[in-house]
Amino acid sequence: MSLLAPPLSLYIHMPWCVKKCPYCDFNSHGLRSEPPPYADYIDHLLADLDADRVDFGAALESRPGVSRPVISVFFGGGTPSLFAPELIERLLDGVRERLPLAADAEITLETNPGTVEHGRFDGYLAAGVNRISFGVQSFDDDKLKRLGRIHSANEAEAAVKSAQDAGYTNINLDLMYALPQQTLDGALADVERAVALEPTHISHYQLTLEPNTAFAANPPPLPDDDHAWAMQEACEARLAGAGYGQYEISAYAQPGRRCVHNLNYWQFGDYLGIGAGAHGKLSDTASGQVRRRWKIRHPRAYLEASGNPSRIGGDNVVSAAELPFEYMLNALRLIDGVPLTAFSERTGVPLERIAAGLAAARQRGWLHDDPRRLHTTALGQRFLNDVIASFLD
Asked: Topology of 321-393 in CATH?
């Protein structure tokens, strides 16, 4: 079957943070005695983008000679707010010179409430950043300390209000639950304080112990699975009551405020990834292949690569056997699911290849028996890992 080119996004990884959190398995590097080369890093990001544009060539075009528009840009990290607004502006100007940004492109900057200086939000807004995502995690100072966060609950509230005062109307708050020794009341109290700030979007996810983290080596006392599930259900209900519709396992939004960038991931869209450790995915309609590429992780090695082939940490074509699992890993996270026809359009794999897996999942009560849409039942959401695993080759 033919492969259709999906929407295109851009992910930009900023690898530095003030201090590595004990639960974090992202490619982040705590600050040392000498400040990072922030300005040089911007130059290398643009060199990386230039090289990717050459490498991917026609895969970045909607038709010969016409570049595909970028619908979203996401600055992730690390802590992107360590970069001054003028550096973010220089980078975005460089992006616009190289790729067409959609007129309504969503441009998100992840922010640590403990790193934002007064007045920076005005600068980020002027630079073109139109969405701010705060890594709050909790509004309980004891829990923040246990998580290794550098901000307090009051500082988090002040940072959000500062962004709103600067003119931001699209704000996400990251919250975690099932924290060390957290109770159900404590999890609900975090949600209450988040809702009181009236963000447009809330990401609410469970703390998990990831390999190669400080928490994995020395696990803290976490609530058991039953208590964690009770927290999830109670917080879901409170968020729904406050007008935040759940559209993905961990994502809740006010009407019309779903995250464009993350939706493109979950709908198996395309994205370029620039920066140390950044991942990208491109659909090549000419060859009918889905290609993944990632960059080398360490910032120093990435800077030394300076846009050369050595910047690439890995590059491979996703096999037809792997595509069903890769697709389901993303699409089944969405509460409303996706059109069934989108599977073949985004993977190039005929539906017949997954017919047996779909039938088995429906028989177990994991998927709705809907001939038009692919979406999980409430039972399927609870056992999502099992549902996804059933599509492994």
From this structure: Arc Repressor Mutant, subunit A (1.10.10)
Q: Do domains 8-264 and 321-393 have the same CATH topology?
A: no
DSSP assigned state of 47: H
* Residue linked to tokens 């290849």: 353
CATH level 2 (architecture), domain 8-264: Alpha-Beta Barrel (3.20)
Residue type at position 7: P
Token pair 């198996």: residue: 268
Give the H/E segment covering residue 66: strand 66-67
- Phi/psi at 48 (5° precision): -60, -45
The predicted-structure confidence for 247-256, as pLDDT tens digits, reads as follows 999 999 999 9
Whether the CA torsion 117, 122, 128, 134 is positive or negative: it is positive
284-331 per-position pLDDT tens digit:
988 899 999 999 999 999 999 999 999 999 999 999 999 999 999 999
Show me where the domains of the chain are located: 8-264, 321-393
Name the 3-class secondary structure at 309.
helix
Residue from 346, 352, 327 nearest 4 by CA: 346
Instruction: Express each pLDDT in 126-136 by its tens digit.
Output: 999 999 999 99
Contacts 24+ apart (CB under 8 A), 316-324: 316/291, 316/292, 317/289, 317/290, 317/291, 318/289, 318/290, 318/291, 318/292, 320/348, 320/349, 320/353, 321/393, 322/393, 323/290, 323/347, 323/348, 323/349, 324/349, 324/353, 324/354, 324/357, 324/391, 324/393
SS3 348: coil
Q: How far apart are CA 48 and CA 295, in angstroms?
A: 9
